[in-house]
Amino acid sequence: MTQLKPTLLLSALTLLLLFVSCGSKSQITIEGTLADGAGKTIFIEEMSPDARIFLDSITLDKKGHFKFTYDMPYKTFYNVHVSNDDYVVLLPDEGSLITMTGSYDSLSLTYRIQGNDDSQLLWQLQDYTNSGTRTLRQLVATDRHNADLLDRGEISQREFDIAHANTDSVYLATFSEQQQYVVRFIEDNLGSLSTLIALYKPFNGRQLINPEDSFEIYEGVLEGLEAYLPDNPHTLSFKNQVERTRFQYARQ
Questions:
Q1: Closest Cα to residue 237, out of 221, 214, 250?
Q2: What is the pLDDT of residues 108-140, one digit of tens each?
Q3: The domain 28-114 belongs to what CATH superfamily?
């Protein structure tokens, strides 16, 4: 059998090590354990600027555990979801290990993660949104209860109107608080792709940051992304959106 010369063997080993190193540099791992998840399925998608790309469906083991490994093509978002309405958005760095816990039956409301900074930022954003969602649900429940009392004649129309005006006032205050939080979040994290998620964050079906009222925030997000991630596909796509919107405003 032909034997490699020491110099050739060393070169071959060096190339092998370089190949392994390059192959693993962009690899990310997402794993977790979800209560009430044994035998159930989660779905993982890559969120490109243009579409959601299905990557895998994973059946959780009897302990509710799952593990997903993937070679990330560029820094981008990943959607881990149990249904179309119940999902978590992650933003890994190259080589990230992200660990998730929570409840399968209410993933977005209960999840916690350990991992890279940008995914932690998105968790903080979602956690604050969850607090507003809980307030909103309480307001809706209060309005329904008062409507039932009105139907049964247990309160007057005037009493109902006063109670409804109060829930409306709390809703508007909650919307404003959510809006202010998102603005601060963006200002504190310019240059992070997490600002794109914050920018389009809705509350009760209404976008918190409206470009017609706050276009300067959109321009600030773009400036930050161009400074830190100029060649990222999300930055380039967002730049096109901002330029189209700027052109539309210029024609008005």
A1: 221
A2: 999 999 989 999 999 999 999 999 999 999 999
A3: Transthyretin/hydroxyisourate hydrolase domain (2.60.40.180)
